[in-house]
Amino acid sequence: MAKRIIMLGLVCLVLGLTCCVLFAGDEPTKSSDNPKVVVGTFDSRAVATAHFGKFINDGGLEKLYSEHNKAKAAGDTKRAEELAAKGSALQKQLHMRMFGNAPIDDILEEIKKDIPRVAQAAGVDIIVGKWDIVYQKPLTKVVDITNQLVNLFEPDEETLEKIKSVLEHPPVPREELEKMDHSH
């Protein structure tokens, strides 16, 4: 919760600074060909899907299953239950992120050293999740950098197909996702 509040504070700070830049100084330009600020946006669902694909490809899911099976075989019921709960929580989190627009702060933390390079290559001044924009001035140029962030996770073809499928639909409201069975 604290990370969410900090991230929300940072987004507000960035948007506030953006407003200062947009409203300060010169008379606003009438053409969006000469924006004062270029904002990079991304679809968090695609980034979450790419991250999970890397987790699978790196053996993370296999390791979790293996540890669970070893604990069961050893009669360590407590450990087996802990691992089962971890798997269920992971599944729920994945659904909330892939099908909804739940925060991906921890994922962005993993790639934070690469984000400035992505921003520079895309020519953007600020990067925000596309679901976080509540208003943009007509002179603001917005560039979708979803693919550049996805590529940081080196997705395979199967993951790219999943991403494509996820992006074909709007995010499911959180309330609906909360009601769903996340056991498969």
Number of strands: 3
Tally of domains: 1
Distance between the termini: 26 Å
What is the helix tally?
Answer: 9
Structural class: mainly alpha
Which strand order spans the largest sheet, edge to edge or round the barrel? 2-1-3
Helical residues, percent: 55-70%
Rg (C-alpha, Å): 20 Å
Describe the 3D structure.
It is built from 9 helices and 3 strands; from the N terminus they run αβαααααββααα. 20% of the residues are buried. It has helices spanning 2-23, 44-57, 60-73, 77-98, 105-110, 115-122, 146-151, 157-167, 174-179, and strands at 38-42, 126-129, 141-144. It has one domain. The longest helix is centred in the first third of the chain and has 22 residues, at 2-23. By secondary structure, it is mainly alpha-helical. Mean pLDDT is 81; it is low at 1-31.
Question: Secondary-structure blueprint of this entry?
Answer:
Layout: H1 2-23, E1 38-42, H2 44-57, H3 60-73, H4 77-98, H5 105-110, H6 115-122, E2 126-129, E3 141-144, H7 146-151, H8 157-167, H9 174-179
Parallel strand pairs: 1-2, 1-3
